[in-house]
Amino acid sequence: MSTATVSGPRNTTGRSGPRKSKLGWNLLGLFVFVTAGFPVYWMLNTAFKPAKDAIDPDPSLLPTSITFSNFSRALNIADFWGPVGRSLIVSLTVVVIGIVVGMLAALAISRFAFRGRKVVIVGILAVQMVPLVAMIIPVFLLLNDLGQYDRLSGLVLTYLTFILPFTVWTLRGFIVNIPRELEEAAMVDGCSRTTAFIRVVFPLLAPGMVATSVYGFIQAWNEYLYALMLMSQQNQTATVWLGNFTTKHGTEYAPMMAGSTLMAVPIVVLFLLVQRKMAAGLTAGAVKG
Amino acid sequence: MSAAETTAPVKVPPARSAPPPTPPVVTGGSTKRLAGATAVPWALLAPCLLILAVVLGYPLVRLVTLSFQEFGQSQLWGFKPAGSVGFANFAAVLGDSEFWTVVVRTIVFAASCVVFTMVIGMAIALLLQKVSGWVKTLVNIALVASWGMPIIVATTVFKWLFDSDYGIFNALLSKLPGVDMIGHNWFASGPEGLAVITLLVVWGAVPFVVITLSAGLTQVPKELEEAARLDGAGAWGVFRYVTLPILKPIIVMLTTLSVIWDMGVFPQVFVMRNGHPEAEFQLLTTYSYDKAFVVNDYAQGSAIALLTVLLLLGVIGVYMRQMLKIGEVE
User: Fold this and answer.
1) Are A40 and A175 part of one and the same domain?
2) Which of A84, A273, B157, B189 has its CB surrounded by the most CB atoms within 10 Å?
3) Which SUPFAM superfamilies match (chain B) (predicted)?
């Protein structure tokens, strides 16, 4: 699959006609669409199939009959709403703390020149780079010492390790895109620094804050390792819940795909709403340099 | 919050280059005001730094100290004090040939993931410039869907695609003339299983690369490409000498980020192998996890984690330099 797409863009020598060449590119594009989209399609296809059709050694590519029974089975495996509720609580708390604390910090590094600014930026970037897996052992010990092991508050604390640096850096990207002159004009008109920020910058920043929150929410919601390690079976979160379909007796694939669908669809839809803005925020200025 | 609101284009002057470097704090003349202005940013930063110190700083320090101690079950429960053992943990890890096998495997795995991700991502980004609008929309939908899929869901789905008995991949392959893959177990051997996991990682990572590079490609001046073409450059020449240099900062950023992420791959292997990766599947992350939580040697697990971070330090340095450059321009 890689060779086809790689060699494609280079062969633009045949300039026989714009329409004809476009057809080739479009076919290649459709191939990418099918390849990239297939796992998602196959998840949905299996989720709505009768469970016995799912274990047909020669599965049909198109749906033959549709059923919702996999979903009811999925909802009944262990408890579904408990883990989802816990994931919601943890993700929302993390995002609220992250956005409030992160915005103050982002403001400091993007709107003030002060000694030590560079050190702070380097520090915030650096901690983002430490792999979560490397941290799991000391984090586990820390929570153990604090009596926060197997508690939602403990999980919130650990999620801040990756949500907070991310929030600061992304919000910084959005803030630097708001011209400083706007604030200065407001201050000339008699606003204080704080009111200038609240009246001028804040409204312009709102969409960026929404995008950052949603993205942060998704990251927290999707986290697996800490959720697995730091919570016991009866306190598991949504991502860990998916593991319940695999038991000693094998895997129930059709209900598992229904469970996967339940988990993925809301997140993908949320993601769809903000991805354009996030790509802009994450790469702001990257090419201007 | 409505969809329209969140997806609305950024309301900023579009072609604004770097703002003039106005010294922001010298608006008031008096020294008193200046002093106050230095306190403000630190006050704004205080909550953030405080939280990071607790949740990140402390564990990081603990990671280092832990790797110089003896720390197992009895130390965890407080039956025995954690005594210092100097470099013994590192000596044990580095002296184990298994560790070096895992290091090589991890590097090969991460490198293939990064190369495939970047090459395929670049090819698709370039392709998207050539296709009709409706094809572009379709590809974008597929990419965003795979990008937004929780890793754990994606892993579960790939496990199903490559199931030995009922997986669609074996069934499709077997439709090819002369190929019989029915019942083939992709996870019977490490290299094949890791190839499937590479595919999963690349599938999940390509969308971010495509979308970021596409954003970058829109900033490549059309006049430059035209000029190069007039000077006789072919498609490859234009790409090599015009597009690539302009995209370089983004490419450096994406490559270093990918290296960091792909060296940290964990749930994909862990879940694919039902929580117990076989020796042939161990990467540095799962190896460290195994040492700590399966063998209950937290100190050696920490030493391995620390060695992984050290291994990454060079890459992290390149990434930071690039990001700082970007930060300075603004």
Assistant:
1) no
2) B157
3) MetI-like
The predicted pLDDT at position B327 comes to: 63
Asked if residue A67 belongs to a domain, the reply is yes
pLDDT reported for residue A280? 64
Nearest-Cα residue of chain B relative to residue A145? B76
Tell me the pLDDT band of B194, cut-offs 50, 70 and 90: very high
Residues of A in contact with B5 (CB under 8 A): 207, 210
Q: State residue B26's pLDDT score.
A: 42
Give the closest of B11, B212, B292 to A204, CB-based. B11
B329 in any annotated domain: no
Which of A198-207, A260-269, B69-78, B90-99 is most confident? B90-99
C-beta atoms of B298 and A137 within 8 A: yes
Asked if residue B284 belongs to a domain, the reply is no
Whichever domain contains B129, its CATH number is 1.10.3720.10
Query: DSSP string of chain A?
Result: -HHHHHHGGG-----S-HHHHHHHHHHHHHHHHHHHHHHHHHHHHHHTS-HHHHT-SS--SS--S--SHHHHHHHHTTTSHHHHHHHHHHHHHHHHHHHHHHHHHHHHHHH---TTHHHHHHHHHHHHHS-HHHHHHHHHHHHHHHT-TT-HHHHHHHHHHHHHHHHHHHHHHHHHTS-HHHHHHHHHTT--HHHHIIIIIHHHHHHHHHHHHHHHHHHHHH--HHHHHHS-GGG--HHHHGGGGEETTEE-HHHHHHHHHHHHHHHHHHHHHHHHHHHHHHHTTTTT-
Task: Give the pLDDT score at A288.
Answer: 35
- Percent of all residues in chain B with a pLDDT value above 70, rounded to a whole number: 87
Q: Verify whether the Cβ–Cβ distance A104 to B48 is below 8 Å.
A: yes
- pLDDT higher than 70, residue A16: no
| Structural domain span for residue B202 | 109-275
Are A145 and A212 in a shared domain? yes
Minimal Cα–Cα distance from B271 to chain A, Å?
8
In-domain check, residue A104? yes
Stretch A166-194: mean pLDDT, rounded? Answer: 86
What is the per-residue pLDDT for A250? 76
Q: What's the complex ipTM? A: 0.84
Alpha-carbon distance of A21 to A13, in angstroms, equals 10
Residue A143 lies in a domain: yes
| Domain assignment of residue A2, yes or no | no
Nearest-CB residue to A26 (from B135, B159, B325): B135
Is B327 a member of any domain?
Answer: no
Q: What percent of chain A has pLDDT over 90?
A: 35
Please tell me the pTM assigned to this model: 0.85
Average pLDDT, chain B: 84
Judge whether residue B23 has pLDDT over 50: no
Q: Which of B69, B149, B286, B287 to mutate to test the interface with A (most CBs of A within 10 A)?
A: B149
